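Now for my pick.
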Amino acid sequence: MDASFRKSLQTPAHISSLAFGHAVHLFAGSDDGTLRLYDMSSFKVLKAIRGLGGEVTSIACLKRPASEYRDVWLACGQKAFLFKMDNSAMIMTPADALSSVQLCEDEDVLNELSLDSAKKYLAYSSDTGNVGVVELSSMTVSKMKTKHENICACVKFIPHRPNELVSGGYDETILHFDFQQGTSLSSLKIPPLDSVGGMSFSPPFIMCTAISSSGLFAAGTGDGRLWVSFGGEKKSTSTQKKKTRKWNGLSWDEEVLLKVADGPVVAMAFLHDNVLTISTLLGTLARFRLERDIKGDVEVTEVWRSEVKTVQKVNALVVNDTKIVIGGFGKDGKGVIEIWEKEVITSS
């Protein structure tokens, strides 16, 4: 389960977002409105997009038949852009976008984009706390009727629940929506961290979330905690006869809340259904196994921990079967991508 540092790549501007296209393609967004597509076998830039006009805060990839490149939706300022990366030009601009849609107004800006499994909907979150969805065939935009009271950092579609998504915000709250109706189905507020003086120096802002294909849900907080819920897990047919009426991923009945770091947990990603990798703002990396014991009780077990080598502050993290990639900036203020190699995890 161990991983080791292999290589770092430097960019002129801070790395603000990362996404894997496929096993050897890495997308890296920067805060100067630039996107780079790297070949991870040669570490060379294959394609780039410039002049997007603001920080690339999120990247969502989708596969298209007959193309070795993934198409990408990018969140940048108030707009989301769709690019086909098999464009003949090596360097593209916003004029090359296949489509764009304005999702924010006034001083609001986008944070995370997510695509549903069928690639029919694009969800977004924003600084004013809004959560919304774009129906891609018609480009119809709808906002949820309930919003976060502070920045909404993240939004994810819920696997096997075609009308539902979940969001997390700096109001320390996770919201669960029926996005077709625009209504809130459930919510959960992370309690403050107990301390000797009864105070926490950092509020439990929801900084990042991840959801596995089986419905395990995790959130990282500004006070260094990891919240994991097994309540929305899709169990095997032998233990679950039929689909439950409601996703119970925000239930306290099957949850674990752990203090895992001294600083904010700012990025996380699932590998397979039950292995979660996280990073703190200052670059503490850790991996956890999420499982049930013989009695069915839930367990979150730390299996590996290390520190980044060249990144001073972390903004993004992605994982696949062979790599952990971390993005942020170094002591010199330039953007840094760290590549870590890890063992392939196989089922026992």
